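cache lookup: miss for this entity combination. No prior model stored, computing from scratch. Input as submitted by user K.M.:
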Amino acid sequence: MTHQYPALTAEQKKELSDIALRIVAPGKGILAADESVGHMAKRLNQIGVENTEENRRLYRQILFSADSRVKKCIGGVIFFHETMYQKADDGTPFVQMIKDKGIVVGIKVDKGVVPLAGTDGETTTQGLDGLSERCAQYKKDGADFAKWRCVLKISDNTPSALAIMENANVLARYASICQQNGIVPIVEPEILPDGDHDLKRCQYVTEKVLAAVYKALSDHHVYLEGTLLKPNMVTPGHSCPTKYSPEEIAMATVTALRRTVPPAVPGVTFLSGGQSEEEASINLNAINTCPLMRPWALTFSYGRALQASALSAWRGQQDNATAATEEFVKRAEVNGLAALGKYEGSGDDSGAAGQSLYVANHAY
Amino acid sequence: MTHQFPALSPEQKKALSDIAQRIVASGKGILAADESVGTMGNRLQRINVENTEENRRAFREILFSSDASINQSIGGVILFHETLYQKDSNGKPFPALIKEKGIVVGIKLDKGTAPLAGTNGETTIQGLDGLAERCAQYKKDGADFGKWRAVLKITSTTPSQLAIQENANTLARYASICQQNGLVPIVEPEILPDGDHDLQRCQYVTEKVLAAVYKALNDHHVYLEGTLLKPNMVMAGHSCPKKYTAQDVAIATVTTLLRTVPAAVPGICFLSGGQSEEEASVNLNAMNQLSLPKPWKLTFSYGRALQASALAAWVGKNENKKAAQEAFRKRAQINGLACRGQYVVAGKTDTAATQSLFTASYTY
């Protein structure tokens, strides 16, 4: 306990830190394009498109062909394994297309959830076996960061102490292994929005989960400056009868992070969960105009919230490809502004009205 | 685990947060005048003054009857139990004398160390028994914050897992009880400077200890915005042959804090340990000059490092009162400047030298 056996050299630390800072550079966030084959099935099903490898390739091509406008608002793209090795119509590997835009390539490395016996339907996440070798290979093939998603849920008796502890531990093991292989780990302890709990409950649970995550990262000697956090925003459950403003969500979220996420972490890249595209942008903007001091970048790592419009514009038709790409670029730019606290919304409310709702932070 | 049973109402939180903010308001720190009878004995012996209650009272009167302008550098004073109930020569109680200068009164609450059986000479701290009642009484009698000192040491086998965890736990219990009684808890996990370990070793141990402390505070539902931290600076052991600069100490210390202390904590008030008055000021100044982002105030809670000159000027003689007060005022003013990174040490160039050392932070 008292002697250090350094996990990383100064050079390794610098490399990891530089990668992390590039991803969350001011005004930039992450495109989460790492939907698994099964997950893509749902998305394509919704627009009446068959879930073939070619259709998945065509769809990702739409996103990755975005022009240089995305350079200033997208710092990283998360890939699924299959996509890492696909190419555009002209034979350019997707990985190269992304890197040529100065965007960092990331890879999803977890292998999905498995049940925790003896709990009320809770899970942990698998994928540690051979993870080191996989990371080394992905690094060679162009990835500089990775993502691993753990899942917790709020109900009357969850998340349990075991679920919190086990998921925190597995996240820390994953993070440690990534760093050994020059890969920045994005740590994602998602607390699902399902349920009728209110904002306070979500905040309380989020604080407990994040405290456990950062204790585990410390125990596992993870270099925080070379990591990113991908948490849920603090929101009420989907079926909660009480409605909250973006400012309330922002205050609860930033308060929870200030109490648990060490300032050494360079960036927090929120998941969008079940939020609509506009909701996810408005909330991110409110978070970035919250009057509390925020020592980390607060930005996005959005999947659906960046792609929904693009998907429905495409509908599997090649003729719609350009229009679909344009929809994506638009959402990316909006979120880039939100990451700077400069997004004024789609015209409904003004920033001034929002400001006045930032009161009484002692209620959080 | 999933339901919150709020420990504090919003009004209680606001009161605690306001007290903490007042203590560490810009440019202010703490005078630690809470030496126990025994420790005061050591101090007085050095200047050949008898350790009587009257002499202890007389010296504290010198400090507390300083001109009110001392409140520009002193935000809080920590008292020992005996001192809280003593009066100045005009019969004014010390708490009143201090409060009328706009300075917050604090009280030492722990009852000293107790051995941890089965360890290599390690200790925990006692004082939890009846602590709530004591806190309530001290609050009535003028105190608004408390202090509790836990002690850890670095050797080849310490601090052990047990010592870290046990001291973190007692600190959290103490903090929780204080807050229930309207007192802001200063959390002090001191890692002694004894030993020949180098700077890196101290940093490693301090990171582990602080991670454990903040996990414990979270587990015990402590309201971080209503606490202060009183840690050691990160320094090499006293008998370490290698010498380090103030910038080395500053970078190592702030890096450690960035990795472990949540942004919600309003202030970090360093203990001076075995440092001389000047060393303690120079090191604090170097930290405040660093361009690393610091979401908490970095200030002082000094005992010896504020009083040594005053004691030496007084040597128990009433006619030396003014000289002693001047010595104290000078140190207070210097430390107030150090809090803002504005202490110009004669003969040294500063910011340029400090800036160039920042790039070496990856070695920390």
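stored under new cache key. The first strand of chain A starts at residue 29 and ends at 33.
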